[in-house]
UniProtKB/TrEMBL annotation, chain A:
Belongs to the binding-protein-dependent transport system permease family. FecCD subfamily. It is a multi-pass membrane protein. SUPFAM superfamilies: ABC transporter involved in vitamin B12 uptake, BtuC. The keyword Membrane applies. The chain crosses the membrane at residues 57-77, 98-128, 140-162, 183-202, 229-255, 296-315. This is ABC transporter permease. It is found in: Cell membrane. Keywords: Cell membrane, Membrane, Transmembrane, Transmembrane helix, Transport. InterPro entries: ABC_BtuC-like (IPR037294), ABC_transptr_permease_BtuC (IPR000522). It comes from Marinobacter vinifirmus. Its main location: membrane. GO terms for cellular component: plasma membrane. One of its GO terms (molecular function) is transmembrane transporter activity.
From TrEMBL, chain B:
InterPro entries: AAA+_ATPase, ABC_transporter-like_ATP-bd, ABC_transporter-like_CS, P-loop_NTPase. Keywords: ATP-binding, Nucleotide-binding, Translocase, Transport. It comes from Marinobacter vinifirmus. Pfam families: ABC_tran. Part of the ABC transporter complex HmuTUV involved in hemin import. Responsible for energy coupling to the transport system. CDD domains: ABC_Iron-Siderophores_B12_Hemin. Gene3D superfamilies: P-loop containing nucleotide triphosphate hydrolases (3.40.50.300). Residues 4-239 form the ABC transporter domain. This is ABC transporter. One of its GO terms (molecular function) is ATP binding.
Automatic annotation (TrEMBL), chain C:
The lineage of its organism: Bacteria, Pseudomonadati, Pseudomonadota, Gammaproteobacteria, Pseudomonadales. Residues 39-293 form the Fe/B12 periplasmic-binding domain. It comes from Marinobacter vinifirmus. The keyword Transferase does not apply. Keywords: Signal. CDD domains: BtuF. This is Cobalamin-binding protein. Residues 1-19 form the signal peptide. Pfam families: Peripla_BP_2. The keyword Phosphoprotein does not apply. One of its GO terms (biological process) is cellular response to iron ion.
Length: 319, 256, 293
């Protein structure tokens, strides 16, 4: 268990180093090293410390947040297909944020509105999919996909009535984009707090993964646990969405791949998701900003290209 | 001495009249079998006794404390349950599954120690599953999974064992093995309470029997006094023949 | 006023003295440079055109996608698209002036440029005078006042001449089609709307609230335009839009009089001195339309 996390930490560090080392401007390795040593010329320092570092950190934090949110939703719904983007949480968060922006709210209110939107979106999916029966995969997915489409329409509507000068700043809610990322620190702090808060809950989550009745019979207070997980997943999604827009499928791919290798012990999967999710998004963003430089791709395109086949494969196998 | 008791208990089955109030006392060393046709409320009764479902009226007491007043984790140390259905949405190995039985015994920051693993392995051994420890649950047969569930309860090691049709899916050999195991547990002062479909297993292994009728009526008592052909024919609405051989009583459907 | 003061101040000082050059951008922010900008990056096709027109073409070192006018601009290095700027490439060019687009560039990226200490100057002309004013202000920042002010004056006089020429002409009801699918037009606040008014046209969607409203074909029929215009040919004269769909509505005045005109796109749609050419074309077409009615 510790070995897996150590390996993932090393890979994450390498990915971040790569993301710092490459860009549309080539900096020779020697000069990179000078900057690391606190020297080097001003331009190299600006490129590395002011441009690449915040972007790398934003991507890492957002990836980690989304992967953990995905892993939590999957345990909560006992369905490996759950993902904040597929289930419309990201859409709800983006809708909330856009509404607040349209109303002229400041950054804090926008984040709060994104959280409320994510929360409401989850409630909607839970409520509708649950109905009177249980969360069957098809029912859940249908509900999620339909509400996600609804959020998409709401966002399009808001973009259609937005004054033109606000448009460019808003479009990225549709397709996540790290190039607009704001300060990375709030996301990183939330990510670290989430991992710390989840570790003591992780064993209970293992039991919850066996079903709510089995969990209750083994001494888990199911309702409070489910609510905390639900709130936490919404908070994580909202934090990620306010920082980088709605990026899809990280929450789906990462926990799935990790489970294939590491099993389904949440004490390993949750911290591993933080590391691997961060790594994935850092790599995807490095690709997005270098592959056809100087043209910049939205990173959501890359994750969707990876995520859609994974999703279809999972769906195919679940039959 | 009683460890689990139902007092004036009426289980809550929507649309059914109240029927008989249950006053049951489960003592260590006893094995109770609940018999009744499909839909009589056997599973609901088990869930009510485990505190997973609220009764319509009456109370359940565990170790002289009312069930509703006991924190979940403490309850799980004293009372465990084998369900009829299980959800296996995620891949998990047999050993991991047995180990979750230790959950109520470990504090939030603790992880499973060598002793916990030893207990889980012993339980798997007792159910012929030791070699399957690293196998994934979804590669097992129905009977093997049933035994894993029982091994999990054994790892949990509560004083009260509630089991919902524990012999489901099991071949004859393993049916007998499980009943022997439960009987041995009863000897170690556990109280066993299970739903059964097989009259002959009940006749042979249970010390007490509760007959549960679809209309909510019920009667209970020591096995010899309850397993009477007339009563059972009424319970199942099925003519029966009764055989006695080598001190073993057997019931079988009669030719009409 | 500030611009003129700056200019006067500048003239009073000898050109040998290193002095601050200052101008206020279209966000109302004043920018002062220690001397005329030598390394300019423009972050919209319109800004590129304006910088060249202001006489600062020599100093422009990089542009964004679709900066196709003047042709020299196409040879310059590229720093991404106006919606997603390659900040690294931009920073590495060490520009001393970045001309941004108020509503076209992402606020986050422009903020980032400011935080990095870049001199940014946001422009977005929304009036004829705005075009002249931007030319003058860019010329001030680039130290190319003689060319820039002359171009600004030429544009001002050209527009004034058109206004004089077409004042009092018979009004023509005009529908300007920005885009076919979805169907989009402009209101009177838009520069194209102002051009239509200038030429004696009457924009049937002039009163709409949004600058670029999305409308339905029924609205167009109800407005019964006498002329339909669309900016839809590229620099080489190839047409990429069509007004043929309107021909099936023979009862519409514009169709009955065959007043469907496709005009060169970028002169009419970019807020640059070429707008004068665009305006002349629109005025000519509307005059033709008047004659056919």
């Amino acid at each position: 268990m510790m070995r897996a996390l150590t390996i993932l930490t090393v890979i994450a560090a390498l990915a971040c180093a790569l993301s710092l080392a490459v860009g549309s401007v080539t900096i020779p390795p020697g000069d990179l090293w000078q900057v690391v040593l606190g020297q080097g010329d001003t331009l190299d320092r600006t490129l590395l410390i002011d441009l690449r570092l915040p972007r790398t950190l934003s991507a890492f934090a957002a990836g980690g947040l989304l992967a953990i949110a995905g892993a939590l939703m999957q345990v909560l719904l006992r369905n490996p297909l759950a993902d904040p983007y597929v289930l419309g949480l990201s859409g709800g968060a983006a809708t909330g944020a856009l509404l607040a922006m349209l109303a002229g709210a400041g950054m804090v209110l926008v984040s709060g509105a994104a959280f409320a939107g994510a929360l409401f979106a989850t409630l909607l999916v839970f409520g509708l999919a649950h109905g009177t029966g249980s969360w069957t995969p098809s029912r859940l997915l249908l509900t999620g996909v339909v509400t996600a489409a609804g959020w998409g329409a709401a966002i399009t509507l808001m973009l259609a009535i937005t004054p033109a000068h606000q448009l460019p700043g808003m479009l990225y809610w549709l397709m996540g984009d790290v190039s607009y990322a704001r300060l990375p620190w709030p996301s990183i702090v939330v990510l670290m707090l989430a991992v710390i808060a989840l570790l003591p809950l992780a064993r209970s989550l293992n039991v919850l993964a066996r079903g709510p009745l089995q969990a209750a019979a083994l001494g888990v207070s199911v309702r409070p646990l489910e609510w905390s997980i639900y709130l936490l997943a919404s908070l994580l999604t909202a934090t990620a969405v306010t920082s980088v827009g709605s990026i899809g499928f990280v929450g789906l791919i990462v926990p799935h791949m990790l489970r294939l290798v590491l099993g389904n012990d949440q004490r390993v999967i949750l911290p591993a998701s933080a590391l691997a999710g961060g790594t994935l998004l850092v790599l995807a963003d490095t690709l997005a900003r270098t592959v056809i430089a100087p043209e910049q791709l939205p990173v959501g395109v890359i994750t969707a290209l990876l995520g859609v086949p994974t999703f279809l494969y999972l769906l195919h196998r679940s039959r | 001495m009683t460890i689990l008791s139902a007092r004036e208990l009426i289980i809550d089955i929507p649309g059914r009249s109240n029927g008989a109030k249950l006053n049951l006392d489960l003592a260590p060393g006893q094995i109770w079998g609940v018999l009744g046709p499909n839909g009589a409320g056997k599973t609901t009764l088990l869930h009510t006794l485990a505190g997973l479902k609220a009764p319509r009226c009456g109370e359940v007491w565990l170790d002289d404390v009312e069930l509703a007043a006991i924190p979940r984790r403490e309850m799980a140390r004293k009372l465990g349950l084998v369900f009829q259905d299980r959800q296996d949405s995620f891949p998990a190995t047999v050993l991991e599954t047995a180990l979750i039985g230790r959950h109520p015994w470990l504090s939030v920051w603790q992880s499973e120690q060598a002793e916990d693993i030893h207990r889980a392995e012993a339980a798997l051994g007792a159910l012929d599953l030791r070699e399957l420890g690293e196998r994934l649950l979804n590669t097992l047969s129905g009977g093997e999974r049933q035994r894993v569930a029982i091994a999990t309860l054994m790892t949990q090691d509560p004083a009260v064992w509630l089991l919902d049709e524990p012999t489901n899916h099991l071949d004859l050999h393993h049916q007998v093995q499980v009943m022997r195991l439960l009987s041995a547990c009863a000897h170690r002062e556990k109280g066993i309470f299970m739903c059964l479909h097989d009259l002959n297993l009940a006749a042979r292994w249970c010390s007490h029997v509760l007959l549960l009728y679809p209309d909510g009526q019920a009667c209970w008592g020591p096995t010899e006094s309850m397993l009477v052909r007339d009563a059972l024919e009424g319970l199942y609405d099925q003519k029966l023949i009764e055989l006695n051989k080598d001190d073993i009583r057997l019931f079988a459907p009669a030719n009409d | 006023m500030i611009v003129i003061r700056v200019f006067v101040l500048f003239l009073m000082l000898s050109s040998h003295v290193v002095a601050d050059v200052c101008a206020t951008d279209d966000n109302g922010v004043e920018l002062c440079l220690p001397g005329p900008a030598q390394r300019i990056v423009t972050l919209s096709p319109g800004a590129t055109e304006l910088a060249f027109a202001a006489g600062a073409g020599e100093q422009v070192i990089a542009v964004v996608d679709y900066s196709d006018y003047p042709p020299e601009a196409e040879m310059l290095p590229n720093v991404g698209s106006h919606t997603r700027i390659d900040l690294e490439a931009l920073v590495a060019l060490k520009p001393d002036l970045v001309v941004t687009w108020v509503s076209g560039n992402p606020v986050e990226q422009v903020t980032m440029l400011n935080q990095l200490g870049m001199a940014t100057f946001a422009i977005e002309p929304r009036t004829f005078e705005g075009v002249s004013s931007v030319l003058e202000r860019l010329a001030s920042l680039a130290g190319t006042e003689s060319e820039g002010y002359a171009e600004a004056a030429r544009f001002r006089q050209g527009i004034a001449a058109l206004a004089k020429q077409y004042r009092g002409r018979e009004p023509v009801r005009v529908f300007y089609q920005v885009w076919d699918q979805p169907l989009m037009t402009i209101n009177d606040e838009h520069l194209i709307g102002k051009v239509i008014s200038l030429c004696g046209g009457q924009n049937i969607f002039g009163e709409m609230a949004r600058l670029v409203p999305r409308i339905g074909p029924e609205d167009v029929l109800a407005g019964d335009p006498e002329a339909i215009l669309s900016g839809g040919t590229d620099e080489d004269g190839n047409s990429y839009t069509s007004l043929e769909r309107w021909r099936e509505f023979g009862a519409m005045a514009a169709v009955a009089a065959d007043n469907l005109f496709i005009i060169p796109a970028s002169p009419i749609s970019r807020p640059t001195p070429r707008l004068l050419d665009g305006a002349r074309t629109v005025c000519e077409k509307l005059d033709m339309a008047r004659a056919r009615l």
